[in-house]
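HUMAN:
Sorry, I am quite new to this. Are you able to go through these amino acid letters and fold codes? The numbers rather puzzle me.
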Amino acid sequence: PTLAPEAPLPVASLYQTEAGFTTDAGEAFALAELRGRPVLLTMFFSTCTYACPATVVDLVRIREKLPSALRDTVRVVMVSFDVERDTPEVLRAFRASRGLPADWVLLRGSADSVRELAALVGVKYKREADGQFAHSNLVTVLTADGEIVHQRAGLSGGLDEAAAALAAISSDLAAP
């Protein structure tokens, strides 16, 4: 069943946050705009040369593992923690260079907004002296209400489990 927009959010919903973000199109974006569809979320930075590109491939693979009828119900969201360099223009270039679908949501935010989201999903990151980041590698599955139902940590394995978690909550939404 689809949620009534006026229904209150669960206490554990990430969508309770008032942290503001900006899309790669330069538009203001609140996480609550994701409400109504399951979400596959990760935090990254565009100049990462190792973990983040591997995570992008994993996001594609997780989505591909879903039954075709459910694939379009899932929103893929990538939030940068490089608040200085990942401008909307840089994120647009990243989207183009990686061939990311138009329906993927690429976000940047203020340092406070990014820290708040990172804390809520359990991502740790630290800027290194060379400008790169040491960071957790987490892919988070959110319900249509923004509650965490699954997390895949690390850079290998766990794709089937993430897809299964998404399929379960997507199927619930597709039920009449």
Q: What stands out?
A: The longest strand covers residues 39-44. The first helix runs from residue 51 to 65. The chain is about 30% helix and 25% strand.
